[in-house]
Amino acid sequence: MSGGAEKPQDPARLVEIILDENSVGRRTPDVEHERKVAIFDLLEENSFALEERDEVGPYTLHISIAENRLVFAVGDAKATPITTFMLSLSPFRKIVKDYFMVCESYYDAIKTAPPSRIEALDMGRRGLHNEGSQLLMKRLEGKINTDFDTARRLFTLICALHWKG
What we know:
Blueprint: E1 14-19, H1 29-44, E2 48-50, E3 59-66, E4 69-76, E5 81-88, H2 93-112, H3 115-140, E6 144-146, H4 148-160
Helix pairs in contact: 1-4, 2-3, 3-4
């Protein structure tokens, strides 16, 4: 079947993501690049739906940090607020700290280190990223239903928000 008919968009998805500029920490070129790529990739392909709610997407998501909590403010496609979820940052602290240390080493290594060192650091970086993504999915359980790839990209954005402490 050919023609100009577009496939209907899945309502269980994000159509806009906003990072609170007041929550965004120091901006290195590497962090800024990863943030932009994560947002682009998320908007291209994602799976995101509110659990146990009548509202149907698509959704907008505003991510910020307030009172030492990660805030997910979910809205409809026109950014009209639907609900807000606040998650403690405590469970993420160690993973994010370790992730940043490995990322820093990785970015330094790609300039001068042998390929075997770069590969080892990249594997460590990916492993920590996966661990953070799984933790995020667990923390969102019963609130937001998402797939692993979407959780990975959301974890990247969480890492772009440096909280104090």
